[in-house]
Design goal:
Chain B: It is found in: Cell membrane. Chain B: Keywords: Cell membrane, Membrane, Transmembrane, Transmembrane helix. Chain B: Its main location: membrane. Chain B: This is ABC transporter permease. The complex is a heterodimer of chains A (221) and B (392). Chain A is an alpha/beta fold. Helix content of chain A is 36%, strand content 26%. In chain A, the strands form two sheets. Chain A has a six-stranded mixed sheet, sandwiched between helices. In chain A, strands 2-1-4-5 form a four-stranded antiparallel sheet, with helices on one face. In chain A, helix 3 crosses helix 4, helix 3 packs parallel to helix 5 and helix 4 packs across helix 5. Chain A is globular. Chain A starts with a strand and ends with a strand. In chain A, 47% of the residues are buried. With 392 residues, chain B is α+β, with helices and mostly antiparallel strands. Chain B has two domains: 176 residues, no CATH class; 181 residues, no CATH class. Helices cover 53% and strands 16% of the residues of chain B. Chain B has twelve helices and eleven strands. In chain B, strands 3, 4, 5, 6, 7, 8 and 9 form a seven-stranded mixed sheet that branches. A four-stranded antiparallel sheet of chain B has the order 2-10-1-11. The longest helix of chain B has 44 residues. At the A-B interface, helix 1, helix 2 and helix 3 of A face helix 1, helix 8, helix 9 and helix 12 of B. The structure holds adenosine-5'-triphosphate and magnesium ion (MG). The site of magnesium ion has 3 residues of chain A, from helix 1.
Chain lengths: 221, 392
């Protein structure tokens, strides 16, 4: 599903050059649930951003869902992200000025989906994460766990083949974290969604199919 | 998507209120400026209706002691023929003090049957007045010798007054005014913009000067040749001085008077324009600043939108459209106030002036908002999604 070949990422600023990723080769199979672990600053988020086409590698090639995306222009990348990928972040990234339901509809706004269909799909996605009674709430009226569930609903509303989650439980206590983890496991099991998750939590990682460890930008296992 | 943006704006109404107010205030200022500009421009477009080049105005104070009407008549006509005899002089005529481009006005009413017209400029004019100023007589004739024996005072009116009094009906031979002061219309002339290029011609009625009385006089209009110079001017001055005991003689050129009166109408407008410019710059900077600030504050949102499928162009389109929606909301309120002016007829201006001013102001505001939001929008589209998400 995702194929990374010899990925290198260098961040250059005026004074320093950071080698965030070096020689990453990774294959994620369709329907696989992969977790990535490693100490802070080792390049986990960078790797996930590159998989999510939010950032370009300095070297190496990526192919996702049988497509090599290196030559995509901005519009094609946007469309690809919209249709194939769903993102979940540690800090949720909900739009505070929009109600829960509108936040969840957001990815569909960048497609040709009519308003009624958008509403239906968003409600369905919120049902899946157990939040069908919070449609009209604003994000600040929700708990952290609820917010992350909204973010998951937003990630799955467009029915993507791949979900990329960057420390989805990082801001939550273990009970809430387990809830979120259960939802992700269910998505993987029931819908066959391919999931790549960055985590700091060994217990979470143990529940996934495979674990990749990074250290200083390189794969260690 | 537009509906989505409306929702976003509505949910942020507190933050947007200030911006809308700012746009609204600038709309009202621009509207005021455009009313003035459009009004002046519409007047400016109208023809002058006469020629002012090489026309001089002789001011004098006549304190003639002659009482006998016939002698007085002879005395005044001699002055005119003495001036006319000078080789540089083409035409000469007596005039009342409200000569073209002067600050003097004589206003009165005119009645015709049931029609009552206010604010009519009254001019007292000699028989060659029309030739001095090269005015166009469109109906009937100007004053002449045949009016010496007239029992009803002859008058000439301008086109606009003719329109108001008679519409498309007959004007010549009609009698206007009260029973005791009936006047008969013998001619119609083209409108004369006597108050300068930027003021309307208004309504005008011309009466024939009576050279056997001392009233209604005080100015002599002289049309001179192109070669009339300072030496000639001083000879003209001397001639007048010897005729009228040298009291308060002054010679002015209509070209100079035109500049003066145009300046007095333009200067307030220029001041207003300068003030408006400062305001606009202020508003533009404010707008620019707010949009810029918004983009930096909304980096997380921008990054997220990029992640879930917005291209750079659609992000910048969204930000520009949001500003345009805000402008539209402000303009709705603004136009609501602005249309009250023609509806309530606040300044006695034609509705077309207000409507043109509204149209121009709306376009101006849209353009201003567009310009102020294009660059921040462009900037937002260049933000890399990974970095935008990182900074939240
Ligand atoms: N935009 C950037 N410019 C320069 N350096 C960057 C940038 N983003 C990340 N880095 C550097 O790249 C390295 C990897 O960063 P990354 O965010 O991928 O780490 P991480 O493994 O996700 O850490 P954490 O567990 O704390 O989230 C770090 O050394 C970081 O300082
Ligand atoms: Mg990270």
């Amino acid at each position: 599903m995702i194929k990374l070949q010899n990925i290198q990422k260098v961040y250059r600023t005026d004074t320093i050059e950071t080698l965030a990723l070096n020689g990453i080769n990774l294959d994620v199979a369709k329907g696989e649930f992969l977790s990535i672990m490693g100490p802070s600053g080792c390049g986990k988020s960078t790797l996930l951003n590159i998989m999510g086409l939010l950032d370009e590698p300095s070297k190496g090639s990526i192919s996702i869902a049988e497509q090599t995306t290196g030559r995509f222009n901005d519009k094609q990348l946007a469309k690809f992200r919209n249709q194939k990928l769903g993102f979940i972040f540690q800090s949720y990234h909900l739009i505070g000025d929009l109600q829960v339901i509108d936040n969840v509809e957001l990815p569909l706004l960048y497609r040709d989906t009519n308003a009624k269909e958008r509403r239906r799909l968003a409600t369905e996605a919120l049902e899946k994460v157990g939040l069908s009674n919070r449609l009209k709430h604003f994000p600040k009226q929700l708990s952290g766990g609820q917010r992350q569930r909204v973010a998951i609903a937003r990630a799955i509303v467009g029915n993507p083949e791949i979900i990329l989650a960057d420390e989805p439980t990082g801001n939550l206590d273990s009970a809430m974290g387990n809830e979120i983890m259960d939802i992700l496991l269910q998505l993987n099991r029931n819908d066959g969604t391919t999931i790549v998750m960055v985590t700091h939590d060994e217990n979470m990682a143990q529940k996934t199919h495979r674990l990749v460890r990074l250290f200083d930008g390189s794969q260690v296992q | 998507m537009i509906k989505h943006l409306f929702k976003l704006i509505w949910n942020k109404k507190k933050q947007n209120f200030l911006l809308i107010t700012e746009i609204l205030v600038s709309f009202m200022v621009i509207f005021a400026v455009f009313i003035l500009v459009v009004n002046y421009y519409q007047h400016y477009k109208q023809p002058m209706g006469f020629e002012y080049d090489h026309v001089w105005v002789v001011n004098y104070q006549s304190d003639v002691k002659i009482k006998d009407k016939d002698s007085l008549d002879v005395y005044y006509k001699t002055i005119l023929s003495n001036i006319k005899a000078m080789p540089q002089v083409q035409e000469v005529s007596f005039a009342s003090s409200n000569v073209p481009f002067s600050a003097n006005t004589h206003m009165n009413n005119v009645d015709y049957k049931k029609v009552h017209v206010n604010r009519v400029n009254y001019y007292t004019a000699g028989d060659a007045y029309d030739k001095v100023l090269n005015m166009k007589v469109t109906e009937g004739r100007w004053f002449g010798k045949q009016d010496d024996a007239a029992t009803v005072k002859p008058v000439i009116i301008n086109r606009t007054l003719r329109q108001q009094l008679f519409g498309n009906g007959k004007a010549l031979g009609e009698k206007v005014g009260g029973n005791d002061s009936k006047r008969i219309i013998v001619g119609v002339v083209e409108d004369v913009k006597a108050k300068g290029d930027y003021q309307e011609a208004g309504l005008a009625m011309y009466e024939r000067i009576d050279t056997s009385s001392n009233d209604g006089r005080g100015r002599i209009l002289v049309k001179v040749n192109a070669n009339a110079d300072a030496a000639f001017e001083s000879r003209l001055y001397k001639l007048m001085a010897s005729n009228s005991n040298n009291s308060g003689i002054e010679i002015e050129h209509l070209t100079d008077k035109r500049k003066t009166i145009n300046n007095t109408t333009l200067i307030p407008m220029i001041i207003l324009l300068v003030v408006a410019c400062f305001l606009i710059i202020n508003v533009a900077l404010g707008l620019f600043g707010v949009l810029w600030y918004n983009i930096n504050k909304r980096k997380g949102e921008i990054g997220l939108r990029r992640a879930i499928g917005a291209s750079g162009d659609s992000v910048s389109w969204q930000l520009v459209t949001e500003s345009m929606i805000l402008a539209t909301l402000a303009l709705f309120i603004g136009i609501f106030f602005a249309v009250q002016f023609p509806l309530l007829n606040v300044f006695d201006l034609p509705a077309s002036v207000y409507l043109t001013a509204i149209l121009l102001s709306v376009m101006f505001i849209y353009l201003l908002v567009l310009i102020c939001s294009l660059y921040p929008g462009k900037q937002a589209s260049a933000i890399l999604p990974a970095i935008a998400l990182h900074e939240e």
